[in-house]
Specification:
Chain A is 33% helix and 20% strand. Chain A has 315 residues and is α/β, with parallel strands linked by helices. In chain A, strands 1, 2, 3, 4, 7, 8, 9, 10, 11 and 12 form a ten-stranded mixed β-sheet that branches. Chain A has a two-stranded antiparallel sheet with strand order 5-6. The longest helix of chain A has 13 residues. Chain B is mainly α and 529 residues long. The chains are: A alpha/beta (315), B mainly alpha (529). The interface between A and B is large, with 68 and 59 residues.
C-alpha cells in the first residue's frame, strides 16, 4: 500500500531525476527530422523484420530479440537522448497487466544506457491520476533503479502543437516535447484487449503522447490512431505479450483477465507488430480497424506473409 | 512559573500546530503524510464534538479541551485553534507599534450568546451540521486554507517551475491549481475579509463575538480554577498589558481581567515588568478575596451547583446536536434499498459518507478531504446540496473521477462524516449509478468507435456490445456500478455527456464482478503467425 510518504519519496526522486530538461531546448535547436533513420533493420524497399520470442522471462526474451536485431546499439547511438514510452495509463499493480511490466521496461532502459544513451526519459499521459500510475505501476522504481527520468505527462505546458502532415481526421495535435525532442523513441506497450479499439498494442499506446485524448474518441478513434503515425513513428516497438489481458480491457478487473502467453514481439514496423499482436489475441489484423487503416495509408505492413518474421523459442 | 516561559511555550505550540495544519491544507503535491492533517484536525474542538456526539468515534479531544479550559482558561484558542492562530499572525502583520489604542472594551455579551444559542438551536432543529459548518473556527480556517491559499501556493509553485525551467534546472513540476467554483469561493473570501477587518478593529474580536466555540469556552474559562489576575500590589498601571492584550479584556481601572474573553496568549504576562499578572487559584480564593468587579455579577462560586449547571449545559448541547442524528439513525445502514427512484440525489457525496443526510449532519466543511483528494474530484458545493449543505464537499465529475484504490478522504476526515472503508468495501460501495444516453453517444451519432467510458470503468459496469458494422456500443450493468464517475469524466461528448452518474441519497453496495479465469485464445504453444 502506497502512502503519502511514498509520494514524498517519489516526488523527491522525480525532482532529482529531471535535469534532462536542461538539454531539451538545446537538442530541439539542433533537431533532426523525425524519421526512422536510426532503424537500419528495415531499409526502404526491404521486408519489415519482426522478431517473435516465446517461452522465456521478459528480460531474457528481450535479450534474445535484441541480439537478433544486432543489439540495442543498432538503434541507440552513443550520446543520444532516448524516450522510452511504456503504457503507464492505469493506477494498477504490475500483476494486473494494465501497464507495461516494469521488469521489461527496466531491461529496455538498461540496454539503452549500455548502448551509450546520454539520457533515458519515460512518461505517459495516463487515464488515472498520474503520480499514482507512475508509482503503482512500478515505473518509479524502474527510474530510481536505472537512472532513467520520469517526466510529468499531465503538464500541458510540456506539450507543443504540431501539424499532422498526412492526417485524415487528425490535422494538428499537442504532442509531448519528449517525443519531439528525443533522438530515439522506443515504444514499449503491453498487449491487451480494449473495449473500444478491440485491442491495444503499439499504435494505440501512442495515444499517450498527445494531450487531448478526448479528440480521438470524439472524432474517429481508429483513424486518429493511424493519423498520428504520419507525423512520427517510433524508432523501435517492443510489445509485452507475456501475460496479455484478454477481456475487460484496457483497465481490467482482476488478474483473472490475464492469460500467460510468455511472448515478446519486437519490430520497427508498428503495423506489422500490431498485426502479429492481433493474431496473438485471436483477431484477424484486418478486423482491427486502426491496423487496417494504417496499412492502407502505407504506414506499415499488415500482411504478415510479407514480413520477415524471426521466431525463437527459449524453452 | 516564569511568566515569559508560558508565552513562548504558547507561541511554540501554536507555531508547530499552525505550520503543520496549514501545510496539510495547502499540500498540492501530496507531500505531507495524511496522518498529520488528520491528527491535528481530530484534536480540534468541533470535529471532536461532532464525532463524539454522532458516535463516529470515541473522540475525547473536546472533553479534554473543556477540562483544560475549566482548569486554566482558553488555551485552545491561542495554541490549537488554527483560526485563532491565523488571527494572531494577522495581528502581528498589521501591528503598528504603540499606535493601537487597544482600550478595555465591554464584552458583547448578547452577540456572543446569540451566536452560541443560535448554533445550539440549529442543532435542536436538525441543522447542527449547517450551523457548525458556518461557525466552527477550525473549519472556517480549513476552507480559507484549502480554497484560497492552496491554489495560490500552487500558482506560486508553477511560476517557480517555469522560471527554473529557463535556468535549466528542474526540481519541481507543475500542478493544475484547482480553484473552487466562483459561488463556493465567496464564503472563504468574505470570511478572510471579515477577519482582517475585525482584527484591525479589535484583535480577537471574532473569537469574542461570533465564534460559538469561543463563547462556550469563555463561559468555562470565566469559571476556571486557575485564572490570570492582576496583582494590585505590584501593578503600577503602566498599561503595557493593555497594549499587549489581543482580546481587549484587561480592565485596568478595576484591576480586573475578563477571563471569559482572555484567549490565554500570555502576552500581558510577558510585557509586565512587575510580574504583576499571574495565574491564581480562583476557586479557593473567591471566598476570602473579592472577585474582580466586572465578573462578580455573573460569577458563582465553585460549588456543586455550578458544576451541575456546567455538566447539564454540555450534555444539553451534546444532546441537541445529536438530535437530528437520532432522527436519521434508522436509515444509517448502507444496505438500505437504493433502487427506489426517491433515492436518487442530484448531488453525489463521497464513498464512506453512507447517506447524503448523514453526511450533511456530520460534515463541518473543513475541506481537509478536498485538500487531500489526489484527483480533485472532491469540490466544495455551493447550491448543490441546497442551502444547508453550502460549502460541503461533493463529487464533481466534470473535473475528475474518484480513484478506485484511493480512500484518502476517509483517512483524513476528522468528524466521522466520511467513514474510512477498507479497500475491499471501497471497491463495492455504491455512491451513484451510471445512466447511458445512446442518442448522444459518439458510436451512434458519428458511427465511429469510442468506448472512453468503458475504457475508464474500473468494475466493467460499462462494457461494450457489438453494434452496427464492426462497432462497439457502451452498455451499462448497474449491478456492478459504484458511481465513481470515471465514465462520465472520460465521455468526450460536448457539451452534454452521453453517460452521466446519478447520485444516491442512501449509498448501497455494488455486486462484485467475478468471472472465471480467462483462457488462452489459442494454446497450441506455437506462434499464430
Amino acid at each position: 500500500m502506497k502512502t503519502r510518504r511514498d509520494f514524498l519519496k517519489a516526488g523527491l526522486a522525480l525532482g532529482a531525476s529531471l535535469p534532462v530538461f536542461a538539454n531539451l531546448e538545446k537538442l530541439f535547436a539542433a533537431d533532426v527530422p523525425a524519421t526512422n533513420s536510426a532503424a537500419p533493420a528495415a531499409p526502404a524497399g526491404a521486408k519489415s523484420v519482426l522478431v517473435a520470442v516465446r517461452d522465456g522471462g521478459r528480460a531474457a526474451m528481450l535479450d534474445k530479440a535484441m541480439s537478433a536485431l544486432g543489439g540495442m546499439e543498432t538503434f541507440v547511438k552513443k550520446g543520444q537522448t532516448v524516450l522510452v514510452k511504456p503504457n503507464i495509463g492505469w493506477d494498477t499493480p504490475p500483476e494486473r497487466g494494465a501497464d507495461t511490466h516494469p521488469e521489461l521496461v527496466k531491461r529496455v532502459v538498461e540496454m539503452c544506457f549500455a548502448a551509450g544513451a546520454k539520457s533515458v526519459s519515460m512518461f505517459d499521459n495516463p487515464c488515472d491520476q498520474w503520480q499514482r500510475c507512475y508509482s503503482h505501476s512500478g515505473m518509479e522504481k524502474v527510474a530510481q533503479d536505472t537512472g532513467a527520468t520520469l517526466v510529468n505527462g499531465k503538464d500541458e505546458t510540456l506539450y507543443r502543437e504540431v501539424e499532422i502532415p498526412g492526417g485524415r481526421k487528425l490535422h494538428t495535435a499537442e504532442v509531448h516535447s519528449l517525443v519531439l525532442d528525443s533522438d530515439v523513441f522506443i515504444n514499449v506497450p503491453v498487449l491487451k484487449h480494449h473495449s473500444g479499439s478491440v485491442m491495444t498494442g503499439c499504435m494505440k499506446n501512442l495515444m499517450g503522447i498527445i494531450w487531448d485524448r478526448g479528440f480521438y474518441h470524439r472524432t474517429d478513434l481508429h483513424q486518429c490512431i493511424a493519423d498520428i503515425l504520419t507525423f512520427k513513428k517510433p524508432t523501435l516497438n517492443i510489445l509485452d505479450a507475456y501475460a496479455p489481458m484478454v477481456r475487460n480491457g484496457p483497465r481490467g478487473v482482476s488478474v483473472d483477465d490475464l492469460v500467460t502467453m510468455r511472448t515478446l514481439l519486437v519490430s520497427t514496423d508498428i503495423v506489422a507488430i500490431d498485426a502479429a499482436g492481433a493474431k496473438l489475441l485471436d483477431h484477424q489484423p484486418s478486423d482491427v480497424r486502426h491496423i487496417a487503416i494504417a496499412a492502407e495509408m502505407g504506414l506499415g505492413t499488415m500482411d504478415l506473409e510479407q514480413v520477415d518474421i524471426r521466431r525463437f523459442k527459449l524453452a | 512559573m516564569p511568566p515569559k516561559f508560558l508565552k513562548w511555550l504558547r507561541v511554540f505550540i501554536a507555531a508547530v500546530v499552525f505550520a503543520a495544519l496549514t501545510a496539510a491544507f495547502v499540500d498540492f503535491r501530496g507531500l505531507v503524510p495524511w496522518q498529520i492533517g488528520h491528527a491535528l484536525a481530530e484534536i480540534q474542538f468541533v470535529p471532536s464534538l461532532v464525532a463524539l456526539i454522532t458516535g463516529a468515534s470515541l473522540s475525547l479531544a473536546c472533553i479534554i479541551i473543556a477540562v483544560i479550559t475549566l482548569a486554566a482558561g482558553r488555551i485552545y484558542c491561542s495554541a490549537i485553534c488554527p483560526l485563532g492562530i491565523f488571527q494572531d499572525v494577522v495581528i502581528h502583520l498589521t501591528k503598528r507599534p504603540k499606535s493601537r489604542p487597544a482600550p478595555y472594551t465591554h464584552p458583547h455579551t448578547w452577540l456572543r450568546q446569540t451566536f452560541l444559542w443560535a448554533t445550539v438551536a440549529a442543532g435542536v432543529a436538525g441543522f447542527g451540521g449547517f450551523a457548525l459548518s458556518l461557525l466552527d473556527p477550525y473549519s472556517n480556517f480549513g476552507r480559507m486554507a484549502s480554497d484560497i491559499f492552496r491554489p495560490l501556493v500552487t500558482m506560486v509553485n508553477n511560476t517557480i517551475v517555469s522560471s527554473v525551467d529557463k535556468l535549466g534546472w528542474h526540481g519541481l513540476f507543475r500542478v493544475e491549481p484547482h480553484w473552487a467554483s466562483f459561488g463556493a469561493l465567496h464564503q472563504p473570501l468574505i470570511l478572510l475579509g471579515l477577519l482582517v477587518v475585525l482584527v484591525v478593529l479589535g484583535g480577537r474580536l471574532y473569537c469574542n463575538t461570533l465564534c460559538p466555540v469561543g463563547t462556550l469556552l469563555g463561559w468555562l474559562s470565566q469559571r476556571a480554577a486557575f485564572r490570570l489576575q492582576i496583582d494590585q500590589g505590584a501593578c503600577r498601571k503602566c498599561a503595557a498589558c493593555l497594549r499587549a492584550c489581543k482580546a481587549q479584556c484587561i480592565d485596568l481601572r478595576a484591576g480586573a481581567i475578563d477571563f471569559s474573553r482572555c484567549v490565554a496568549c500570555y502576552n500581558c504576562m510577558d510585557v509586565c515588568d512587575e510580574h504583576g499578572i499571574n495565574y491564581r487559584f480562583a476557586w479557593a480564593r473567591e471566598k476570602t478575596i473579592p472577585a474582580p468587579a466586572s465578573q462578580t455579577a455573573s460569577d458563582g462560586v465553585a460549588d456543586p451547583q455550578r458544576r451541575a449547571f456546567l455538566s447539564k449545559s454540555i450534555l444539553g448541547i451534546a444532546g441537541v446536536t445529536g438530535f437530528s442524528r437520532v432522527l436519521l439513525a434508522a436509515e444509517r445502514s448502507p444496505t438500505g434499498s437504493f433502487e427506489t427512484p426517491r433515492n436518487f440525489s442530484p448531488v453525489i457525496c463521497p464513498p464512506g459518507a453512507v447517506s447524503v443526510e448523514r453526511f450533511l449532519d456530520r460534515c463541518t466543511a473543513c475541506h481537509l478531504c478536498i485538500s487531500e483528494c489526489p484527483t480533485g474530484v472532491l469540490q466544495p458545493s455551493f447550491g448543490e446540496y441546497g442551502f444547508i449543505g453550502i460549502m460541503k464537499p461533493r463529487m464533481d465529475y466534470r473535473i475528475a473521477f474518484c480513484n478506485y484504490d484511493c480512500r484518502h478522504c476517509g483517512e483524513v476526515c476528522p468528524d466521522g462524516a466520511i467513514d474510512l472503508l477498507d479497500l475491499a468495501a471501497k471497491h463495492l460501495v455504491k455512491i451513484g449509478e451510471a445512466q447511458f444516453n445512446r442518442d448522444k453517444c459518439v458510436v451512434v451519432t458519428n458511427g465511429t468507435d469510442c468506448a472512453a467510458c468503458s475504457e475508464h470503468c474500473p468494475t466493467k459496469a460499462v462494457s461494450t456490445i457489438p453494434y452496427g458494422e464492426n462497432l462497439r456500443l457502451p452498455s451499462v450493468n448497474n449491478k456492478l456500478c459504484i458511481g465513481c464517475g470515471a465514465c462520465e469524466y472520460a465521455c468526450p461528448v460536448k457539451p452534454d455527456k452521453a453517460i452521466k452518474v446519478i447520485g444516491l441519497r442512501q449509498h448501497g453496495w455494488a455486486k462484485k464482478n467475478i468471472e472465471p479465469k480467462a483462457t488462452l485464445p489459442k494454446s497450441n504453444g506455437d506462434f499464430p503467425f
